Amino acid sequence: MSLSIRNQIAGTVTAVTTGEAMATVKVRLDGGQDITAAITADAVKDLGLATGSAVKALVKATEVALATGPVEGLSIRNRIAGTVVDVVTGPAMASVKVDVNGGGLTAAITADAVEALGLAAGTSVVALIKATEVSLQVA
Known about the structure:
mainly beta, five-stranded antiparallel β-sheet, 10 strands, elongated
């Protein structure tokens, strides 16, 4: 299946915590980072997700925020350190490619944010992704 979602990162489920309607699924990405997805309990059942399941974490580029240092006091669970490898800036928006320990993430952010943060190849960043914005696909 082809998808327009830019960020499709392979990993393995390490934990599933299911509630009445929603579940959290922790995934160890192939690069060693951890990411949490908040999905419906029905999706966990329908996909047959369990510890050891091979999955792809899917995240739209518009749902990836970037910070240039550690962020405290924030509810966002997914904080993945990386290094900017490429920035393509247009008049309003920019596409920022980030290497996250051998894998890659793309963030679609405003051109103003790129300028304000001083983003360029080699800049250290932290990618921030809400757990509710991570979808899972069985690999």
